Amino acid sequence: MAVKFRKDLFADERDDSLAEIGRPTIRQDIQGHVTGRSPFYDDRHFDGLLHVRCVRSPHHHARIRSIDSSRAEAMPGVVRLIRPRDVPRNLNTLLSLIGFGRDDEPLLAERKVAYVGEPVLAVIATSAAAAETAAAAVTVDWEVLPHVLDVEEALGPGAPVVNDEYPNNSFDYHDRYDHQKLRFGDAESAFAAADRIVEGEYQMSPIEQAPLETCGAIAAPETGGRIACYTATQALFFSIGVTGKLLEIPSSRLHFIGGTVGGGFGGKVDSHHEPVAVLGAMLTGRPVKYMWDRAEEMQVGGPRGGERWRIRDGVMRDGRITARAFTGFFDAGAYTRLSSYAVQKATGHLPGPYTIPNVASNVYCVYTNRTPSTAMRGFGITAVDFAIECQMDRVAEAVGMDPIELRILNAYRDGDMKAHRRSAKNCALIESCQVAAEKAGWRLSAEAMAQSSRIGGGTGWRGEIPETVTDDEGRIGERRRSGLAPEPFSGAGARGRVAAGAASDHPATGNAPQREDMVAEAARLGFRIDSGAPQPAARPAAPALAASGDEPRAPAAAAAPALPPGHALPAPPPAQPRREPDADGPAAQVRPGVRRPGVSPFISGSRRR
Amino acid sequence: MSGTPVTFTLNGAAAGGFADPGGNLLDLLRRGVGDRTPKYGCGQGSCGACTVLVDGAPRLACITLAESVAGRDVRTAAGLGDGAGLGALQQAFVDHFAAQCGYCTPGMLMAATALLERDPNPSRDAVVDAIGGNICRCTGYEPIVEAILAAARGAREAR
Fold first, then answer.
1. What is the pTM of this model?
2. CB atoms A36 and B37 under 8 Å
3. What is the C-alpha to C-alpha distance for residues A588 and B50, in angstroms, rounded to an integer?
4. Does A212 touch chain B (CB under 8 A)?
5. CB A391 within 8 A of CB A202
């Protein structure tokens, strides 16, 4: 149902002019900023305020044998400790609130730590100094474990298991795949037909958001069992949800006050401080502040994740890029947080703003013993954009072409088919290049200056997109087998084909699922696919279409994707000898949140080797 | 509250509080006196968010001993207003979009105040130098420099 705007209501009281661009506008919060009265969370003062300091791991990876806190507990000013067992549900993953990923991170580590600075115990004391002194007096008997800090080493044979929930050191996509895949067209054939192959590897380091106001929160008991929480969070409702989940209390008991953030840049979405402060207030009955100092902010605060990208381009002599393959490694650090989503975002961005008819990508969300990564300004996009644009310059050099003209030649135009089978709309890269060149005094050829995003899209070579290659089991792309290290794209085993950009009847997006196992998972998308048949029980994290063979299927699941004539789906392959036949097939029962050891050679629960 | 009593002038009025042994001026102002305009950013004198004026000179409150301001004149962003309204420098920050998250703003204002009192006609370089110890992570330096120069211009024209 389309939204209808009732412009007739209050028309005389409203100025509908949207001509704001080019006009100065006064920020609504600037009066508070210039008077120093903007209410940052730490500007709230409470009598009897208590302070929290955490005992943290000095090791990248270690098992906790025992903790001796007796000296700390006896110190002046110490009110009490928060131990892992004080946290009612000491395991969470940020995106569990939208049913994405499995709980993998404790609020306070109980058995082992997986990065330097991981908290194992919190001390509550009457002053920050007393809490700090007491935290330093806690002795932990560590059993230091081997650690891994490099994404590819983490995926290699014999790497230490960083995150018990993901023993392959990689996030499980769609509960089936150890990487996020993208296939469009037939990259292997296009590489074979290309005049030149241009390859590059690009590495972006982690970056700390470094907000001027460090992360923190103050919780104070209100009446009727409610707890007020003043917080620096960028994501108030995330923080409420996480706090309610970890502490197993309804959100109606949580009164969160935020919105004034002293710089966030993504680093204030992790929701660590609120549950600690609220739990402290519940345990002591007093107001409790948990605030990072600058050193903690820099060491423990989740940065933008490091990323490594390999790009392989097939290029024609005239500068057209006809094939592009990516292998990406996103460093999640020790826990998932938002990195799983960052990889999907990155994949959604490929192959950059260019019309390339054959694209293949495998991106891994990898666990290492580094500080867990989190959001930061365009995370998932900036690093691969850096890689893509460096690669574009390399391609320009390889074919002896002006780098801006190369971009204009390959840029998306309105009507081009993108690698995600969406038609490109409102494109402006060509015009942006032209304006940038003009402003920089960079001379472009008359031909390049005459190009337009509105002309030629989807026609000629721009519209010639081969059908997408599938593997011998009818899936998009090749799959990794047990015992193999992560491999770049290869076209091996290609047999079936799927039309690019087929239109359609997907209940959520209007796009056709390409394969049965790619149909929308209703519960994940947050809507119900009405099949007229019994639906699986509505559990927030349960994909609804985990139909086993004899269960009724939703019509959307059964609908065959539209295929052009002569391109029937490949017949099911002859049964391969397997430990558990069909366990990894499209119809396999999927139980998110539950590990299934030994189910498949490439999905969660089993070691890769 | 325990600690050493410290009395001083704060924004022209008598003020006082108890300083913890070794306690810093930032804690004394924020918790002891209740002036929350200076901010904690680093606690190690590297970000400038806690900048205040002591006898007219910019000082980093987080690394200034609280007891050292006894009997001296301390000024913070809370004293920059013109009655209930904004002071000229504050107004220039408003007009030039010189704040984004606002956390560095009180420190920036105090560093700029010290400069303009010392040098009413600062060059751009002098302005950049004066706020050289103040970090803005929202990348707002250019509007801040513009705002300070505009405030200086305004003061000249008013004379």
1. 0.82
2. yes
3. 59
4. yes
5. yes
